[in-house]
Amino acid sequence: MVDGFRPALLQEALKIRSEYDCTPIAGGTDLMVQKARGFALKPDFEKPLLFIGHLPELHKIIIENNQIHIGAGALLTDLLNSKKIPAIFKEAIGLMASPPSRNLASIGGNICNASPAGDTLPYLYAVNATLVVMSAKGERTNPINEFITGPKQTALRRDELLTKIIIPNKIFDVNFYRKVGQRKGMSLTKAAFLGMADIENGKLTDIRITFGSVAPVIVRSWEIEKYIIGTPLREIKAAITEIQNQFEPLLRPIHDARSTAVYRKKVSLRLLEDFLKNISKEK
Ligand SMILES: Cc1cc2nc3c(=O)[nH]c(=O)nc-3n(C[C@H](O)[C@H](O)[C@H](O)COP(=O)(O)OP(=O)(O)OC[C@H]3O[C@@H](n4cnc5c(N)ncnc54)[C@H](O)[C@@H]3O)c2cc1C
Questions:
Q1: 20 to 30 A from 90, CA-CA: which of 100, 118, 140, 187?
Q2: Does the CB atom of residue 207 touch ligand 1 within 6 A?
Q3: Atom of ligand 1 nearest to the CA of 32
Protein backbone atom coordinates (compact mmCIF):
# COMPACT_ATOMS: atom_id res chain seq x y z
CA MET A 1 0.00 0.00 0.00
CA VAL A 2 1.05 3.57 -0.68
CA ASP A 3 0.73 5.84 2.36
CA GLY A 4 -1.52 8.78 1.75
CA PHE A 5 -3.85 11.43 3.08
CA ARG A 6 -7.32 12.16 1.70
CA PRO A 7 -8.53 15.36 3.34
CA ALA A 8 -12.17 16.46 2.86
CA LEU A 9 -11.45 20.17 2.57
CA LEU A 10 -8.71 22.45 1.26
CA GLN A 11 -7.90 23.88 4.72
CA GLU A 12 -7.34 20.35 6.01
CA ALA A 13 -5.07 19.62 3.02
CA LEU A 14 -3.01 22.75 3.73
CA LYS A 15 -2.65 21.74 7.40
CA ILE A 16 -1.38 18.29 6.36
CA ARG A 17 0.97 19.95 3.85
CA SER A 18 2.40 22.13 6.65
CA GLU A 19 2.95 19.13 8.96
CA TYR A 20 4.18 16.41 6.59
CA ASP A 21 6.61 16.28 3.69
CA CYS A 22 4.18 14.82 1.16
CA THR A 23 3.51 14.78 -2.60
CA PRO A 24 0.27 16.34 -3.86
CA ILE A 25 -1.54 14.18 -6.39
CA ALA A 26 -4.50 15.44 -8.44
CA GLY A 27 -5.32 13.19 -11.41
CA GLY A 28 -2.04 11.30 -11.18
CA THR A 29 -1.65 11.16 -14.98
CA ASP A 30 1.87 12.55 -14.77
CA LEU A 31 2.87 11.18 -11.37
CA MET A 32 1.74 7.60 -11.94
CA VAL A 33 3.75 7.45 -15.16
CA GLN A 34 6.83 9.05 -13.57
CA LYS A 35 6.75 6.72 -10.55
CA ALA A 36 5.68 3.51 -12.31
CA ARG A 37 7.96 0.50 -11.78
CA GLY A 38 6.30 -2.03 -14.07
CA PHE A 39 3.23 -4.23 -14.41
CA ALA A 40 1.63 -5.26 -11.07
CA LEU A 41 4.29 -3.45 -9.05
CA LYS A 42 3.27 -0.60 -6.80
CA PRO A 43 4.58 2.80 -7.97
CA ASP A 44 7.69 4.05 -6.26
CA PHE A 45 6.54 7.04 -4.20
CA GLU A 46 9.24 8.21 -1.79
CA LYS A 47 6.82 10.38 0.20
CA PRO A 48 3.23 9.95 1.40
CA LEU A 49 0.67 11.16 -1.14
CA LEU A 50 -1.72 14.02 -0.50
CA PHE A 51 -4.83 13.43 -2.62
CA ILE A 52 -6.28 16.77 -3.71
CA GLY A 53 -8.09 16.01 -6.97
CA HIS A 54 -11.47 15.62 -5.22
CA LEU A 55 -11.35 18.86 -3.19
CA PRO A 56 -14.46 20.92 -4.10
CA GLU A 57 -12.68 24.28 -3.59
CA LEU A 58 -10.27 23.43 -6.42
CA HIS A 59 -12.94 22.75 -9.05
CA LYS A 60 -14.64 26.12 -9.42
CA ILE A 61 -14.50 28.05 -12.69
CA ILE A 62 -15.94 31.53 -12.15
CA ILE A 63 -15.80 34.99 -13.70
CA GLU A 64 -14.99 37.84 -11.32
CA ASN A 65 -14.01 41.44 -12.22
CA ASN A 66 -13.70 40.43 -15.87
CA GLN A 67 -11.17 37.73 -15.00
CA ILE A 68 -11.63 33.97 -15.20
CA HIS A 69 -10.71 32.15 -11.96
CA ILE A 70 -9.97 28.49 -12.60
CA GLY A 71 -9.54 26.09 -9.69
CA ALA A 72 -6.24 24.21 -9.95
CA GLY A 73 -8.11 20.90 -9.70
CA ALA A 74 -10.36 21.69 -12.68
CA LEU A 75 -10.17 18.76 -15.08
CA LEU A 76 -9.24 19.28 -18.71
CA THR A 77 -12.74 17.94 -19.53
CA ASP A 78 -14.31 20.57 -17.22
CA LEU A 79 -12.43 23.28 -19.11
CA LEU A 80 -13.57 21.91 -22.47
CA ASN A 81 -17.18 21.84 -21.24
CA SER A 82 -17.13 25.32 -19.71
CA LYS A 83 -18.63 28.24 -21.65
CA LYS A 84 -16.31 30.57 -19.71
CA ILE A 85 -13.08 29.27 -21.26
CA PRO A 86 -11.87 31.02 -24.47
CA ALA A 87 -12.11 28.90 -27.61
CA ILE A 88 -8.39 29.13 -28.43
CA PHE A 89 -7.49 27.71 -24.99
CA LYS A 90 -10.02 24.90 -25.55
CA GLU A 91 -8.41 24.18 -28.92
CA ALA A 92 -5.10 23.46 -27.16
CA ILE A 93 -6.75 21.44 -24.37
CA GLY A 94 -8.82 19.41 -26.85
CA LEU A 95 -5.60 18.15 -28.44
CA MET A 96 -4.18 16.94 -25.11
CA ALA A 97 -4.03 13.21 -24.31
CA SER A 98 -7.30 11.28 -24.80
CA PRO A 99 -10.84 11.75 -23.42
CA PRO A 100 -10.28 9.23 -20.55
CA SER A 101 -7.01 10.98 -19.55
CA ARG A 102 -8.68 14.40 -19.79
CA ASN A 103 -11.32 13.13 -17.33
CA LEU A 104 -8.53 12.66 -14.75
CA ALA A 105 -5.92 15.27 -15.64
CA SER A 106 -6.07 18.69 -13.97
CA ILE A 107 -4.86 22.07 -15.17
CA GLY A 108 -2.92 22.48 -11.90
CA GLY A 109 -1.10 19.19 -12.54
CA ASN A 110 -0.09 20.33 -16.02
CA ILE A 111 1.33 23.58 -14.60
CA CYS A 112 3.08 22.04 -11.57
CA ASN A 113 4.59 19.31 -13.74
CA ALA A 114 6.32 22.23 -15.48
CA SER A 115 7.17 20.37 -18.66
CA PRO A 116 8.28 22.57 -21.59
CA ALA A 117 5.83 20.41 -23.58
CA GLY A 118 2.89 21.10 -21.22
CA ASP A 119 0.08 22.03 -23.58
CA THR A 120 -1.84 24.45 -21.33
CA LEU A 121 1.30 26.56 -20.91
CA PRO A 122 1.64 28.44 -24.25
CA TYR A 123 -1.82 30.00 -23.72
CA LEU A 124 -1.28 30.67 -20.01
CA TYR A 125 2.05 32.43 -20.73
CA ALA A 126 0.48 34.42 -23.58
CA VAL A 127 -2.27 35.84 -21.35
CA ASN A 128 0.03 36.52 -18.36
CA ALA A 129 -1.80 34.03 -16.14
CA THR A 130 -1.55 34.71 -12.41
CA LEU A 131 -1.16 31.68 -10.18
CA VAL A 132 -2.53 31.67 -6.63
CA VAL A 133 -0.69 29.39 -4.20
CA MET A 134 -1.81 28.75 -0.64
CA SER A 135 -0.28 27.41 2.53
CA ALA A 136 -1.74 27.15 6.05
CA LYS A 137 -0.20 30.60 6.65
CA GLY A 138 -1.96 32.38 3.76
CA GLU A 139 -1.78 32.92 0.03
CA ARG A 140 0.52 34.59 -2.50
CA THR A 141 0.38 35.14 -6.23
CA ASN A 142 2.95 34.52 -8.95
CA PRO A 143 2.97 35.32 -12.67
CA ILE A 144 3.25 31.99 -14.48
CA ASN A 145 6.62 32.87 -16.03
CA GLU A 146 8.06 33.35 -12.50
CA PHE A 147 6.31 30.30 -11.03
CA ILE A 148 7.87 27.93 -13.57
CA THR A 149 11.61 28.22 -13.01
CA GLY A 150 12.89 25.44 -15.30
CA PRO A 151 11.97 22.06 -16.76
CA LYS A 152 10.08 20.22 -13.98
CA GLN A 153 10.90 23.03 -11.56
CA THR A 154 8.57 25.53 -9.91
CA ALA A 155 8.67 28.14 -7.19
CA LEU A 156 6.13 26.14 -5.15
CA ARG A 157 7.27 25.87 -1.52
CA ARG A 158 7.19 22.61 0.43
CA ASP A 159 4.06 23.61 2.39
CA GLU A 160 2.09 25.11 -0.51
CA LEU A 161 -0.51 24.03 -3.04
CA LEU A 162 -1.42 25.70 -6.30
CA THR A 163 -5.08 26.59 -5.79
CA LYS A 164 -6.16 28.90 -8.59
CA ILE A 165 -5.23 30.20 -12.05
CA ILE A 166 -6.47 33.67 -13.01
CA ILE A 167 -6.66 34.69 -16.68
CA PRO A 168 -8.25 37.72 -18.37
CA ASN A 169 -11.78 37.29 -19.69
CA LYS A 170 -10.75 38.42 -23.14
CA ILE A 171 -10.86 37.16 -26.71
CA PHE A 172 -8.25 38.43 -29.18
CA ASP A 173 -9.18 39.40 -32.75
CA VAL A 174 -6.78 36.83 -34.28
CA ASN A 175 -6.19 33.43 -32.65
CA PHE A 176 -3.82 30.79 -33.99
CA TYR A 177 -2.71 27.55 -32.30
CA ARG A 178 -0.82 24.61 -33.75
CA LYS A 179 0.46 21.50 -31.99
CA VAL A 180 2.90 19.37 -33.93
CA GLY A 181 2.93 15.73 -32.85
CA GLN A 182 3.35 12.25 -34.23
CA ARG A 183 -0.34 12.07 -35.15
CA LYS A 184 -3.53 14.11 -34.75
CA GLY A 185 -4.73 12.70 -31.41
CA MET A 186 -3.14 11.11 -28.30
CA SER A 187 0.16 12.62 -29.17
CA LEU A 188 2.83 14.34 -27.08
CA THR A 189 4.06 17.65 -28.39
CA LYS A 190 7.14 17.93 -30.60
CA ALA A 191 6.55 21.66 -30.95
CA ALA A 192 3.65 23.99 -30.16
CA PHE A 193 2.94 27.53 -31.30
CA LEU A 194 0.36 30.03 -30.13
CA GLY A 195 -0.23 33.49 -31.56
CA MET A 196 -2.91 36.03 -30.75
CA ALA A 197 -3.34 39.60 -31.89
CA ASP A 198 -5.62 42.63 -31.72
CA ILE A 199 -6.10 44.94 -34.70
CA GLU A 200 -7.45 48.46 -34.90
CA ASN A 201 -7.56 50.77 -37.94
CA GLY A 202 -5.31 48.47 -39.96
CA LYS A 203 -2.58 48.32 -37.28
CA LEU A 204 -1.54 45.75 -34.71
CA THR A 205 -2.45 47.05 -31.25
CA ASP A 206 -1.46 43.89 -29.32
CA ILE A 207 0.34 40.67 -30.14
CA ARG A 208 1.19 37.59 -28.08
CA ILE A 209 3.53 34.88 -29.36
CA THR A 210 4.54 31.75 -27.43
CA PHE A 211 6.43 28.59 -28.35
CA GLY A 212 6.25 25.25 -26.49
CA SER A 213 8.80 22.41 -26.50
CA VAL A 214 11.66 24.43 -27.96
CA ALA A 215 13.49 25.59 -24.80
CA PRO A 216 13.69 24.65 -21.10
CA VAL A 217 10.55 26.76 -20.50
CA ILE A 218 7.87 28.28 -22.76
CA VAL A 219 9.38 30.97 -25.00
CA ARG A 220 7.79 34.41 -24.98
CA SER A 221 9.57 37.69 -25.71
CA TRP A 222 7.92 40.87 -24.48
CA GLU A 223 10.63 42.87 -26.31
CA ILE A 224 9.88 41.33 -29.70
CA GLU A 225 6.13 41.74 -29.15
CA LYS A 226 6.71 45.42 -28.34
CA TYR A 227 8.78 45.76 -31.54
CA ILE A 228 5.90 44.30 -33.62
CA ILE A 229 3.02 46.25 -32.00
CA GLY A 230 2.04 49.29 -34.06
CA THR A 231 3.04 47.70 -37.39
CA PRO A 232 0.47 48.40 -40.12
CA LEU A 233 -1.00 45.13 -41.44
CA ARG A 234 0.21 45.88 -44.99
CA GLU A 235 3.81 45.90 -43.69
CA ILE A 236 3.65 42.62 -41.74
CA LYS A 237 4.54 40.35 -44.66
CA ALA A 238 7.74 42.30 -45.36
CA ALA A 239 8.71 42.09 -41.66
CA ILE A 240 8.33 38.29 -41.31
CA THR A 241 11.98 37.35 -41.91
CA GLU A 242 13.18 40.01 -39.48
CA ILE A 243 10.74 38.77 -36.78
CA GLN A 244 11.81 35.14 -37.38
CA ASN A 245 15.47 36.22 -37.04
CA GLN A 246 14.70 37.87 -33.72
CA PHE A 247 13.05 34.74 -32.32
CA GLU A 248 15.57 32.28 -33.77
CA PRO A 249 18.22 32.54 -30.99
CA LEU A 250 15.53 32.13 -28.30
CA LEU A 251 14.51 28.71 -29.67
CA ARG A 252 16.94 26.18 -28.15
CA PRO A 253 15.16 22.83 -28.60
CA ILE A 254 16.60 19.50 -27.57
CA HIS A 255 17.06 16.46 -29.77
CA ASP A 256 15.21 13.47 -28.24
CA ALA A 257 13.13 10.38 -29.05
CA ARG A 258 10.17 12.56 -30.01
CA SER A 259 11.93 14.83 -32.53
CA THR A 260 15.18 16.34 -33.69
CA ALA A 261 16.22 19.80 -32.54
CA VAL A 262 16.55 20.95 -36.16
CA TYR A 263 12.98 19.92 -37.01
CA ARG A 264 11.56 21.54 -33.86
CA LYS A 265 13.19 24.87 -34.62
CA LYS A 266 12.35 24.85 -38.33
CA VAL A 267 8.68 23.97 -37.84
CA SER A 268 8.30 26.53 -35.03
CA LEU A 269 9.64 29.35 -37.20
CA ARG A 270 7.36 28.19 -40.06
CA LEU A 271 4.35 28.34 -37.73
CA LEU A 272 5.35 31.87 -36.73
CA GLU A 273 5.43 32.74 -40.44
CA ASP A 274 1.95 31.21 -40.97
CA PHE A 275 0.56 33.20 -38.06
CA LEU A 276 2.03 36.48 -39.31
CA LYS A 277 0.76 35.77 -42.84
CA ASN A 278 -2.72 35.14 -41.39
CA ILE A 279 -2.61 38.50 -39.64
CA SER A 280 -1.54 40.27 -42.79
CA LYS A 281 -4.72 38.99 -44.50
CA GLU A 282 -6.97 40.57 -41.81
CA LYS A 283 -8.98 43.66 -42.76
C1 LIG B 1 -1.42 8.97 -21.96
C2 LIG B 1 -1.03 10.37 -21.55
C3 LIG B 1 -1.11 11.38 -22.48
C4 LIG B 1 -0.76 12.70 -22.12
N5 LIG B 1 -0.86 13.67 -23.07
C6 LIG B 1 -0.53 14.94 -22.75
C7 LIG B 1 -0.60 15.99 -23.73
O8 LIG B 1 -0.99 15.78 -24.87
N9 LIG B 1 -0.22 17.24 -23.34
C10 LIG B 1 0.21 17.52 -22.08
O11 LIG B 1 0.53 18.67 -21.79
N12 LIG B 1 0.27 16.56 -21.13
C13 LIG B 1 -0.08 15.29 -21.43
N14 LIG B 1 0.01 14.30 -20.47
C15 LIG B 1 0.48 14.64 -19.14
C16 LIG B 1 -0.64 14.88 -18.10
O17 LIG B 1 -1.83 14.22 -18.42
C18 LIG B 1 -0.95 16.39 -17.89
O19 LIG B 1 0.23 17.09 -17.57
C20 LIG B 1 -2.00 16.60 -16.77
O21 LIG B 1 -2.57 17.88 -16.90
C22 LIG B 1 -1.45 16.39 -15.37
O23 LIG B 1 -2.49 16.61 -14.44
P24 LIG B 1 -2.72 15.62 -13.21
O25 LIG B 1 -3.84 16.19 -12.42
O26 LIG B 1 -2.89 14.22 -13.64
O27 LIG B 1 -1.32 15.80 -12.45
P28 LIG B 1 -0.63 14.85 -11.36
O29 LIG B 1 0.01 13.71 -12.05
O30 LIG B 1 -1.57 14.55 -10.26
O31 LIG B 1 0.48 15.85 -10.81
C32 LIG B 1 1.51 16.34 -11.64
C33 LIG B 1 2.49 17.16 -10.79
O34 LIG B 1 1.88 18.31 -10.26
C35 LIG B 1 1.84 18.30 -8.82
N36 LIG B 1 0.53 18.88 -8.50
C37 LIG B 1 -0.67 18.55 -9.06
N38 LIG B 1 -1.61 19.40 -8.62
C39 LIG B 1 -1.02 20.26 -7.76
C40 LIG B 1 -1.48 21.38 -7.01
N41 LIG B 1 -2.74 21.81 -7.07
N42 LIG B 1 -0.60 22.05 -6.21
C43 LIG B 1 0.69 21.64 -6.17
N44 LIG B 1 1.20 20.61 -6.88
C45 LIG B 1 0.35 19.93 -7.68
C46 LIG B 1 2.06 16.87 -8.41
O47 LIG B 1 2.70 16.77 -7.16
C48 LIG B 1 2.99 16.40 -9.56
O49 LIG B 1 4.31 16.82 -9.31
C50 LIG B 1 -0.34 12.98 -20.81
C51 LIG B 1 -0.26 11.94 -19.86
C52 LIG B 1 -0.61 10.65 -20.23
C53 LIG B 1 -0.53 9.57 -19.20
A1: 140
A2: no
A3: 29
